[in-house]
Amino acid sequence: MPKPTDSPPLAGRRAQAARNDATILAAARAVFLDDPKAPIAAVAERAGVGISALYRRYAGKEDLLRTLCHDGLLRFVAAAEEAAAEPDDWAAFAGFLERVVDADVHSLTVHLAGTFTPTEEMGRAAVRANELVDGLVGRARDAGRLRPDVVTQDVGLLLEGCAAIRVPDPDRTRQLRRRHLAVLLAGLAVPGPPLPGPPPGVGEFDWRWRPKQ
Amino acid sequence: MPKPTDSPPLAGRRAQAARNDATILAAARAVFLDDPKAPIAAVAERAGVGISALYRRYAGKEDLLRTLCHDGLLRFVAAAEEAAAEPDDWAAFAGFLERVVDADVHSLTVHLAGTFTPTEEMGRAAVRANELVDGLVGRARDAGRLRPDVVTQDVGLLLEGCAAIRVPDPDRTRQLRRRHLAVLLAGLAVPGPPLPGPPPGVGEFDWRWRPKQ
DNA sequence: TGAGGAACGGAATGTTTCGTTCCGTTCGAC
DNA sequence: GTCGAACGGAACGAAACATTCCGTTCCTCA
């Protein structure tokens, strides 16, 4: 029986700690997704660790929330980059939405806004995310697959709508979101009647990030 | 100059109190829509009254939340009844969604669930609401306007998605929701590719109302 | 193999938030 | 002119919560 000595050691105190890093962040994601005002103790309980395991890693609640949100932003960017690699313009657009909805990454960057002061690096990531989405929307629209009156900011509305769907079972939640997304994609494809009202503008959704109160 | 002596007198202590009834309920709606965990003092402040004006009317926070939710349920039913009067099957369905989205009535009955123990009367109203929606969906589907694989419970998903859209300005919020709803309606109309996954079931959305924890 | 300390669990603490009560005041009703 | 309904807001007590602290475990490294 060979003893595993690979790069990620499976036993030992350091390994346990490294694994806790991920466990805690995952628990925090689940907890704050469920209730943005949840106490920090709920995260510890969900992760199955003590409170000190949290404070060893993060300076405080705000630091945890910031890290969590930053992580979500990076996942968002990664999803957009992966989807952009798809050659078919519509598949790239639809695949992007599916990835983001499946990963439940949008609510993280939205419902936690205002609970911490963002870093400059997060600002850069947000700009990059916006550029990527803009590219995907542009491709699908230029290819004549996406209705021409859809703007980049509409994607935020879609994602927020999908993220609002939630049932106790995570798998079922994903299924229902996909179903909802399918309706949206059907409504997004050409042809269709013109959309009412002025389209959402660029500066219309960063109010969550502006100084609190 | 004739003196108004009609049924709702515009001056006097009683009249002021009667007006406060509505003011307080409206303030509570706005506050708890914005933050389901908001303190009661926030409602008083928003309504421009003291705290005692609240406690004169409601036994406590739970009583206020229950009343608020009950009120929302009644508005929901009223919207469904009004919409059902429309002869065109699709217009009835679409009009219903527009009314509920405009009145922002769905989030009230959803995000407040679990914060109070519901009354039997609310249960009856909920059943009635479900029957009405069922009727509207059935009409639109039987008329061949609504895609046949849409079930009544899908409406809950749509409404939740629309309600999740929120910007500081209420009017703009309504515009954006209408825009989002237009995409959804376009995706809901026949024809369209089949929707993925098993459709939502009847008992899949009352988990919010089941005993807390 | 033994000492040192990284990692941790969870009780303790101090503070803030919040629901509710209480009291003094106002002013229309009768 | 008197009574009390309606009210504003301070005061109170309890609960929630972020953070700190201390004792324990057990890997790590020499």
Your description of this structure?
The structure is a homodimer of 213-residue chains. The first copy, chain A, is mainly α. In chain A, 63% of the residues lie in helices and 0% in strands. Chain A has 9 helices and no strands. The longest helix of chain A is centred in the middle third of the chain and has 24 residues, at 61-84. The model of chain A is unreliable at 1-9 (pLDDT under 50). The A-B interface holds A 37, 154, 157-158, 160-165, 167-168, 172, 175-176, 178-180, 182-188, 192-193, 195-200, 204-205, 207 and B 37, 154, 157-158, 160-165, 167-168, 172, 175-176, 178-180, 182-188, 192-193, 195-200, 204-205, 207. The first copy, chain A, binds a DNA duplex (30 and 30 nucleotides) through helix 1, helix 2 and helix 3.
Show the helix and strand layout:
The structure is a homodimer of 213-residue chains.
Chain A: H1 13-34, H2 40-47, H3 51-55, H4 61-84, H5 89-103, H6 106-111, H7 120-142, H8 152-164, H9 170-188
Helix pairs in contact in A: 1-2, 4-5, 4-7, 5-7, 5-9
Chain A binds a DNA duplex (30 and 30 nucleotides) through helix 1, helix 2 and helix 3.
